[in-house]
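User: Okay, second chain of the day. Same drill as before: sequence in, structure tokens out.
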Amino acid sequence: MDIVDKLNEELLKQTFAEEQKLTEHLDEYKHIASMYARTENAIAVLSDMKTNTSYLYYGGVAEKLGLAERDTSKTVHSIWEEEIFGLMHPDDLLEKHLQELRFFHFLKSVPSRKRRDYYLTHNMRMLDNSGRYMHVLHRIFYIANDSNGSVWLSLCLYNFSINTSLNCIIINSTNGQALELEKQNCNNLLSDREKEVLQLIDKGKMSKDIARILSISINTVNRHRQNILEKLQVSNSIEACRVAKELKLLHA
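Assistant: Same drill. Structure tokens below.
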């Protein structure tokens, strides 16, 4: 999936400071994740961007989903929990990655010391061990940064939910304020010129046509194209147009 690939690339190519305290604090965060799994019967996934490693802790939810026995854990060499993704309804998995992309861009506007105050929550459908879709509440926190401001650790929690709404909400855990992700302003993600270029791409225009219409060089058009792909974290123009429409940067 292109969104996953680009988000994966962005997270793993961050520049991390060589800080011993990161390693020293890892065991503390692993203990926190394991306690979430035990006390909430949740699946807790602690992902380390610096080493591309995830630590999974299983509560009772994992048994019902047929993933693992409760009170067990394992380590995988990836920041993506593919085994869990395989149980998600395909539409919800796509939506999950898109909304996490939006949340990641939202956090870029937040001072690094306050990023852990916010988390994204939404419901999804996942197959249980009998092949029936269950409603699951997913929460993601970016809980630790290094001194450069790079995201170091994320924590994902999965619990069963009685809420059938699939809306995504950002919660500020310090004051209880809820922000609907759909209402977050992403207009500044692309420049006005980049939006013009992408609108023409969406209409099927080639680079030479865009250059003529906007009275700019083809090299400038190509530079805008590359910037658009990087900002939207996609690998091609088709995906760029689709994601831009989802973010309401283009008219559908």
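The CA atoms of residues 194 and 227 lie 8 Å apart.

User: Thanks, on to the next one.
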